[in-house]
Structure formats: structure tokens, C-alpha cells
Amino acid sequence: MEDLSYYEILEVSQSADKSTIKKAYRTMAKKYHPDKNPGDEAAEHQFKLCNEAYQCLSDAKQKSIYDRYGKEGLQGMGGGGRRSSGGFDDLGSMFEDMFSGMGGGGGRRQNPADMDKYPLDMNIDMHISFDEAVFGCEKEVKYRYKQACKPCKGTGAKNAKLSTCKQCAGQGQVYMKQGFMTFSQTCPACQGTGAAATDSCKSCNGKGFDEITDSVNVNIPAGIDTGNRLRVSGQGNIGKKGSRGDLYVTFEVEQDKHFIRDENDVYIEIPVFFTQAITGESITIPSLTGEVELQLDVGTRDKQRFTFRGEGIADVHGHGKGHLIAIINIQYPKKLNENQAELLFKLQESFGIESTPHEGVLDAAIDKMKGWFKK
After folding, report:
1. Is the torsion defined by CA of 49, 51, 54, 59 positive or negative?
2. Which end of the chain lies in a sparser environment, N or C, as judged by fewer CB atoms within 10 Å?
3. Hey, what CATH class is 111-161+198-254 in?
4. pLDDT by residue (tens digit) across 23-51?
5. Could you tell me the pTM of the whole model?
6. Residue 291 belongs to what H/E stretch?
7. Which helix (H) or strand (E) holds 262?
8. Are 237 and 207 in contact (CB under 8 A)?
9. Is 91 helix (H, G, I), strand (E, B) or coil?
10. How far apart are CA 177 and CA 83, in angstroms?
11. Model confidence over 272-301: pLDDT tens digits?
12. How many whole angstroms separate alpha carbon 197 and alpha carbon 199?
């Protein structure tokens, strides 16, 4: 199964409405249809993915399940996002409308011996540190890709001899009836090819492919974030005819102990002693590229924020940099000795009435409360 999401396959956002999804599907299906790309395995594979993606996203119920649980959530609904033949737009009529002038052949089935047993594009996950994501780096990626077994020519069958699949009678689909509805899913025996091996290939144990360990150096751009993907062209799986897909690397960025990332902005909590906050002291704080001076306001408040523009993370697409936001966390002494307590008392007295703001504010509330009990 492709690791690309259905939205990525159709090149639409997750918020796209049904009309937008249908329009995108028609465009993509027309682009990759086998009749427009004869002999192009990559285009045919992409066409199948577009069909699968549209069948899921055009149905409100399946789309909702997919958005919440992904492809795994669809497994109990007829198999990996495949939909009932009676519950969605008639794809056949749609194809007739799209390709009516292309010279026929819309229902032509590809030779099972030419069909790959796996997608050519592949995905791997990579964990990188916070600083590697912020500044970019070069990493060696070790992975395993599939290559069609040469003795069986990628069929999984001894001497590449295939016969009609008995489970689906060569249709590539199996059907189940539930009430008046008929559900279809890819035949599990032949994976949709309509053909199966009479005897398994001993070289690959019937899998149809060998797995090869390889490595490639990847240049990771500054600003990469969790969930971002990089495409390494021509480093994916290899098909029966030598066509090779792409390798996609999906990143997981580790969190830092001090800096908290929010897209391209970075937050850092700065502990400040209460006297520093009161007097508006200037303090040195860390940034991503060194140190910066933070000038506190006189009477700085707890949780007050100070923004250093352009001191955040570079946008991975080259659209400037985010900001560094320092959040003040005022610290108070946990205990006082006699001398400290006396000094603070004298300081408080020096402010006069300003040091007891609660009295004027609460006098009216106290008088009002007393009135409640006189009634």
C-alpha cells in the first residue's frame, strides 16, 4: 500500500469539498489513464491510486473514518478503502465521458505478468534532533527496497508461469452481498491481477521480489519539521521492467529541553527574580544563534512575553524566519531571614498607600457585605 495519503494522491487539501475532490480526481485520472500512457507502469500505478483515493474521499462516511483513523480504519468496510459498487458515482460512465474520443480500449485489462506486486514508491521514517532540523544537515539513510525476482520475472511463479486465479475466476475482484448492496474488494489470492502461480518460485518463495539493503545521503534543509517529507528521486522499489520509484523520507523531530517550537516560531521560558522584574533589569538570554539582550520593563509581569523578530526558525520553503518569544516566569524567594524581611518591610512602607492597593478596592465590597447581614 502506498504511504502517500489519499489527499496527497489527488493533490487536494483535507478541507476540500466533494466537488473539488471530484474535479481533482477527473483531472488526475485523465492524466494517468492507461490509454493515454500505453506501457507506462508508473502512470498505471498512479491511476490505480487515484481511483482508490477517490472511492474513499467521495463517500462522506468513509472520508470521516479515514480522516480519523487512516487506511487502517477502513479495513472492516470491504477492504482498504474499496467501496461498494452501488454507493458512489458510476466510475465507468465517468471514464466514458472522459475518454470517449480516445480510441477505445478503456476496459482493457493489463497482462497479469506485467503487473508489479508492490508499489514502486516507498516511504521510510527518520528521527532527527532539534538542532539538525533547525539548521539542516546531511544524513545517511539506510533502507531496504524491493526488486523484482529475476528467475520468476517478478511473478512469484515457477518459470513465470501463471494460471487463472481460482478464487476470483480471473476478475481480480471478489464480491460480497449484504442485503441489496454488493461490496467488492481486491482478490487477496492474486492481489488484483486475476492470475495466480501454479507453483511458487523457490528463489523468492513466491513473493515475486527480493529485498536489498542500500543507503543514500540526504540533504535535509533547515527548517524541516515533524510530518514533513522529502522525495529522493529514483531510489524507491524497482519493478519488473526496470522502472524505479521514488523514496520518500518522513521526519520526526525530537523536542528540545529549553526551546519549544510552534511552526517557525520558538518559545523559551525565562526565570526572572522578582527584584529584576520590578526594577526592569537587562538580562542575557539564549537564542538559536547565540545570545541576545532582553530589556525587562519596569514592573514586568509574570507570563509577559517579549518578541525577538527574525530570531526563530528559517522557513523550509524559503519564506523568511519566525520569531523568538521569551516568556517571563517570575521567581520569588522561598524563605526570608530577619534582615531580608526587615528590608522588604521598609521598602513596602516607602511606597505609602501605593503598597496597599487592596484596601481602597475592597472597602466598598466589605461595606456591601455587612449590609447583607443587617437585612
Report:
1. negative
2. C
3. mainly beta
4. 888 888 888 887 778 778 888 888 888 88
5. 0.56
6. strand 291-295
7. strand 259-262
8. no
9. helix
10. 13
11. 999 999 989 999 999 998 889 999 999 899
12. 5
